[in-house]
Amino acid sequence: METKVTSEPKSNGVPNGGARIVVDDDDEVLRPTDLSEMLAEGTKESHDRAENCQFVKDFLRGRIKRELFKRGTAALYFVYSAMEEEIEKNKDHPHIAPIYFPTELHRREALARDLEHFYGEDWESQVSLSAGTKPYVDRIHEVGGKDPVLLVAHSYTRYMGDLSGGQILKKVAQRALKLPSTGEGLNFYQFEGIHSHKGFKQLYRSRMNELELDADTKERIVDESNRAFGFNMMVFTELEEIGETIKEEVQDAGLGHSHAEIMQGGDINKCPYYAAKMAASGNPTYVCQLAMMLLRHPPCQVALAACVAVLAGFTAWYLV
């Protein structure tokens, strides 16, 4: 059975003004001129640059400093506060209303709970808008006030990425930072109003493709999405620079997650920057690093010792 989004029965129950995700026997028909396809194609280079930045690679390896994770959470809080403020202001705009899903998508309150977990009840007095995040926030407010259709680009870039790579990132952070299994500190990654991430992403892209936009406006949305990637990378760069000044031991997260594992976990091609190529790329450097990490991993050490013992036994038997 294949899936597509329609307005007919067999809903999975996603609430929001009658919006429903439907399972059908026909595949969703996409065209090169559909906005979702133009975004996927037009942001490939930006996507590749972002997913290969050092901060993202380190994150996916489980090399996360708690202080950087806290600061990254604060940066996201300011970005989502700006984006959701502008979306609320423009929720009746003809190009925003079809993709307005506050119950399912909005992250500001979830991020506030995460910041309270990390900083305590007075977290608001401890966090501030950083220099690397301010241009991103300023741009969101600018387009929200002057050109709301470009909010489509920011919404797509952030929310679809969160739904695609979020669960893998949640697991990596939970292991690396030894966060509670009950989810404290990781509310950002939990979309409690969405039952099927894949189905909701199909619905969202279908709604985008139905927007009445001319070719020039679609191109402007693609350009703005690339700009959003650039802003995200500015945040990553700032965190990398801060990380170089922090004398904090990196938590041991085991092996983190490989590119292949992430690929199995979701539609990573729709994710803005949550990917790493590592050993899957065939690069011998990564292969060597993976081998060394395996040797440092206790279960692998036991397995290796067992193999050596068996080999020694066979050798002794043969010589006798």
Shape: globular
Which H/E pattern describes the elements? HHHHHHHHHHHHH
Quick check: average pLDDT? 79
Tell me the number of helical segments per DSSP (H or I, 4 or more residues long): 13
Overall number of strands: 0
How many strands, which pairing sense, and closed or not: the largest β-sheet? none
As a percent range, the share of helical residues equals: 55-70%
What Rg, in angstroms, do the CA atoms define?
Answer: 22 Å
Q: Provide the low-confidence segments as ranges.
A: 1-26, 250-255, 258-287, 310-320
Structural class: mainly alpha
Distance between the termini: 60 Å
Strand content: under 5%
Walk me through what this model shows:
The chain has 320 residues and is mainly alpha-helical. Helix 1 crosses helix 10 and helix 4 packs antiparallel against helix 8. The protein is globular, with a radius of gyration of 22 Å.
Describe what is shown at a glance.
The chain is mainly alpha-helical.
What key phrases describe this protein's structure?
mainly alpha; globular; 320 residues; single chain; disordered C terminus; 13 helices
SSE diagram, text form:
Elements: H1 35-42, H2 44-51, H3 54-60, H4 66-89, H5 102-105, H6 108-119, H7 134-146, H8 151-176, H9 197-209, H10 215-243, H11 259-265, H12 284-296, H13 298-319
Helix pairs in contact: 1-10, 4-6, 4-7, 4-8, 4-10, 8-9, 8-10
